Amino acid sequence: xxxxxxxxxxxxxxxQAQFIASHLSIPKISTGDIFRANVSGGTDLGRKAKEYMDxxxxxPDEITIAMVRDRLAEDDAQGGFLLDGFPRNVPQAETLKKIxxxxxxxxxxxxxxxxxxxxxxxxxxGRRTCTKCxxxxxxxxxxxxxxxxxDCGGRLFQRDxxxxxxxxxxxxxxxxxxxxxxxxxxxxxxxxRIDATGPVDEVTARALDALRRSE
Length: 215
Ligand code: AP5
Ligand code: ZN
What we know:
The protein is an alpha/beta fold. It has helices at residues 13-24, 31-41, 44-55, 61-72, 90-103, 117-125, 164-188, 200-214, and strands at 2-6, 28-30, 81-84, 109-114, 127-130, 136-138, 156-157, 191-195. Helix 1 crosses helix 8 (200-214), helix 2 (31-41) packs across helix 3 (44-55) and helix 6 (117-125) packs across helix 7. The site of BIS(adenosine)-5'-pentaphosphate (AP5) has 35 residues, from helix 1, helix 2, helix 3, helix 6 and strand 6.
């Protein structure tokens, strides 16, 4: 399947993407993860992206789109993929359509994770990510007493853009630039909204159910 996950910062896209992609044996393509890996690796791309990410702004389309085009052309993405964090504005959605047209394929479904703003702020303020296996944790909901990953023993870190003022700006950017793609995919007839509140495994079950129905 070819899937896009959309939703505000902190909706649980990364969390759900891990489970859905492994359940369907398709690659998870997260533009945020790719940018962060480039920032920590000190690459040219990372240096270009960092100033935008630190402010909570979108990285310019020409940088982001070229990166996604290359990733989608890789062998493991030919049988399907799950995109997390892309597209994030209407020009990116239109370009994705053109790229997939060139490949002779199309998206099957766009899943919108719906969650209110207070919950998003709560989730992001307690988020920790594993430096080694990239698993996402939450200090309260996962009852983390230390900063060690229970899965792999790696050290957990807090993202720079999870500071409160940056989170608020990311939410504004989402409303202004990303929400219009919900309408775009609604018009295409492939948008499915799911309630992203409640325990992680319940949200996963709702997501997998929506994917089965769309087949
Ligand atoms: P990106 O990494 O994509 O960030 P985001 O969209 O803001 O989303 P988040 O990763 O913050 O949240 P999430 O929905 O994945 O939530 P998570 O699962 O972690 O982008 C970062 C930056 O990169 C952007 O600001 C931009 O600069 C740049 N960028 C990326 N893509 C771009 C693009 N296409 N174009 C231009 N620029 C781009 O969950 C959050 C927390 O909640 C975790 O602690 C988790 O454990 C917890 N949690 C999750 N689900 C639940 C649940 N059901 N109940 C309780 N807690 C939960
Ligand atoms: Zn880990």
